[in-house]
Amino acid sequence: MAIRTILHYPDKRLRIPGAVVTDFGPELQALVDDMAETMYAAPGVGLAAPQIGISKRLFLIDVATGEDQPSDLRIFVNPVILERAGEVAWEEGCLSFPGVHEEIDRAERVKVHAQDRHGVSFELEAEGLLAVAIQHEHDHLEGKLMVDHLGMLKKRMVHRQMVKRANEAHDGAE
Ligand code: NI
């Protein structure tokens, strides 16, 4: 297993929509393992393949945040959100936006269809953090990012903050 590099906004690769996964062979299994290791090392509650530069429809979520909680790793391959209900405003972060936390309007509950890492189909009804995380990660598969949910002023502010951060990181590397 290996920790992959997480791309940070405004990296253009984050805007590439994911392709449908058709091969559930060893390459995908290795990718899933690497993504889990990368997500836990970050640490984060979710990670989508496009965030590590892999344009595939696949994301991982683990909402067991407490140190004494057992892990609750969920893998969603080719997910489709079938139903959305209710409204909730949730303060979200994203591993591709380090240091950024913004309140975003989401559906309170979702019903999702997906495949597991071996290609077996399942359906899941979720609410709360898990429902929000599913919507957030699903956006990544469409090349959609948390800034796209913000008003123009906030969006500009986050954009400037992230560009400044990227330039600083670049200067530091020289
Ligand atoms: Ni994200």
Q: How are the SSEs placed, and which strands pair?
A:
Elements: H1 26-41, E1 46-48, E2 58-61, E3 74-85, E4 88-92, E5 102-106, E6 109-115, E7 121-127, H2 128-141, H3 152-173
Bound molecules: nickel (II) ion.
Textual characterization of the structure:
By secondary structure, the protein is of the alpha+beta class. About 30% of the residues lie in helices and about 25% in strands. The chain is built from three helices and seven strands. The chain has a five-stranded antiparallel sheet with strand order 1-2-3-6-7, with helices on both faces. The mean pLDDT is about 95. Nickel (II) ion (NI) binds near residues 94, 95 and 96.
- Strand order in space, largest sheet: 1-2-3-6-7
Could you name the ranges where pLDDT drops below 50 across 5 or more consecutive residues? none
Tally of helical segments: 3
Q: What's the count of strands?
A: 7
Helical content stands at 25-40%
Pairing-aware structural class of the strands and helices?
alpha+beta
Biggest sheet: strands, sense, closure? 5 strands, antiparallel
Overall mean pLDDT: 95
Morphology: globular
Succession of helices and strands: HEEEEEEEHH
**Small ligands present:** nickel (II) ion
Distance between the termini: 29 Å
- In percent terms, what proportion of residues is strand? 15-25%
Cα-atom radius of gyration: 16 Å
